[in-house]
Amino acid sequence: TTPLIIDTDPGVDDAFALALAAASPEVELIGVTTVFGNVPLADTTANALRLRALLRREDVPVAAGADRPLVHPQPKLSSAHGSDGLSGARGTLPEPTRATDPRDAVTLMRELLEAADQPVTIVPIGPLTNVALLLAAHPRLKEKIGRLVVMGGGVNGGNITAAAEFNVWSDPEAARRVLVDEDVPTTLVPIDVTHRCAVSAEWLAELGRTSATAGALVGLTADYLATYRRILDLDGIVVHDAIAVAEAIRPGLLAAKPYALEVDCSHGPGRGGLVVDRRLQAPGPENLRIATDTDFDGLRAFLFERLSSLGGA
Ligand code: BDR
Ligand code: CA
C-alpha cells in the first residue's frame, strides 16, 4: 500500500476525494492537512474533522495549515460549495470525537515524510500554499515524496476567471513554486479532464442508497448541484478532487503528457492561469505531466464501486 497525504479545502468534491481514499486498499491515508480555499480555514478544518468522523477514520491526523495565500490576498472565496463548504449540511455529519492535531500542516507533513519507510504520495486538492511552504522549508524531504497528484489548472481556460482555475488562482505564487520551480514528480489533473467525468444526479441518488455513509456524502451535494446547473447547465456535479485521488490510487489511470508550463503570476486578466507549451518542438519537463484523457465511463464505474463500499448502513 502507498502512504497517502491529502491536502484539502473541503469542499464537496474534496469530501468525495477523502471518501474515495478511505475506501481504497491500495493506499493508506496517513494524514490530512487543511488549507483555506473554498471557504475559510476554520470551515475547511471543521469540515475535514466531520468527514473523518463520517468515514470512521479518526485514527488519521488532521492538521490545519495556511489561512491565506503566500503573497497576495485571495480576491474572493468560492461560492460553489454553499455557506459552509458542504452545501450548508456540515451539521448532518457526525460530531468529531478527536480534535485537530496540535501540529500545523507543514509540521505534520514533515514528520510523516521523515517517518515514512517508502515513498509518500501527496494529493493537493486545494490552493497549493501548504505544499509550497513544505517544499521551500524542507527541500531535503523532496526525496521522500514519491509523487504529487495535483488537482488544479485549466489548459483551455478557467472556471473562476476566463483564464484561471480556482485552486491555482487562489494562490498563483504557491502554484508556481510547486508546479514550475520545484522538481518533484508531479501529475497535474486539470479541469479539462475533470469536467469530462461529471456524475449525474441519478448516479448520486443511486450511490446514496447503497449505505448510510454514502447517503450522508450525497447529502452534502445540494448547493454544489445547483452550482453545476448554473455554470455548466448540468444535472450533476463534477468531482474534480476525487479524480486526482483515483490517479493516486491507480497510477497511470489517467493518460498524461509532459508539457512545459508557466503559472501566470501577473496582476492582469491572466492571473492564476496556466501557460502550457503545446508546440510539438517544445521540450517537455522531466517531472511534470498533465493528465489529458482516460476511459471516463470506466472511471465513473470505479468511483461508484469504491464509494458504494463505504458501508456503515
Ligand atoms: C477545484 O476548486 C474547488 O472548488 C474544488 O474543490 C476543486 O478542488 C476545482 O476547480
Ligand atoms: Ca478542493
TrEMBL record:
InterPro entries: Inosine/uridine_hydrolase_dom, IUNH, Ribo_hydro-like. Gene3D superfamilies: Ribonucleoside hydrolase-like. One of its GO terms (molecular function) is hydrolase activity. Keywords: Glycosidase, Hydrolase. SUPFAM superfamilies: Nucleoside hydrolase. Residues 4-299 form the Inosine/uridine-preferring nucleoside hydrolase domain. This is Nucleoside hydrolase. It holds the Pfam family IU_nuc_hydro. The keyword Hydrolase applies. Residues 65-100 are annotated as: Disordered.
